[in-house]
Amino acid sequence: QKEVEQDPGPLSVPEGAIVSLNCTYSNSAFQYFMWYRQYSRKGPELLMYTYSSGNKEDGRFTAQVDKSSKYISLFIRDSQPSDSATYLCAMSRNSGNTPLVFGKGTRLSVIA
Amino acid sequence: GAVVSQHPSWVICKSGTSVKIECRSLDFQATTMFWYRQFPKQSLMLMATSNEGSKATYEQGVEKDKFLINHASLTLSTLTVTSAHPEDSSFYICSISGRASYEQYFGPGTRLTVT
Questions:
Q1: Which residues on A lie below 8 Å from B46 (Cβ)?
Q2: Nearest-CA residue of chain A relative to B3?
Q3: What does the pLDDT average to over A27-38?
């Protein structure tokens, strides 16, 4: 079993839809959870990070972490064509200079 | 967040030659930088952790003599792919840990094609 599982999609939604992206993980030691957005042929861009369980909201984006289920989610409200990208979840065990463990990424297309 | 640049952004080389990729932190002194590799439609796979002033730490399965890493200063790390082969063709991305150390900021990536 991989440490982090993420459905690669592709996921196609109409403009204005609510998008739900998810990852599951197996290592209970993960404490920091991140979501990155990656446009084609570009480096990943940090969208949101969360420590431990809970919710965090930033504009149209909401990140949720459920450590008991080892499940994290990213919700995008009022999705826009500019949101079309690959979304990668990432996690780490501690707050030091620790490399991240990434999911495979979910490719999202928002159709105008 | 921190700004990270990579050079070159795209390179084509012949099999057997070596290629050097630079990763620069433009506004933050990074004691640690990470090098990842990403194949098409795959996730980022960590290759090595680069520490300023010391030897890099390589992940299992990554040949340290093939992928030479030099972290010469707090703002520059280089990855040299030696004797490149077509199977080394990939997207190479570096990252640094930001001020909040669990945040990582990525460079724009370097696309390497070995013919």
A1: 99-100
A2: A45
A3: 92
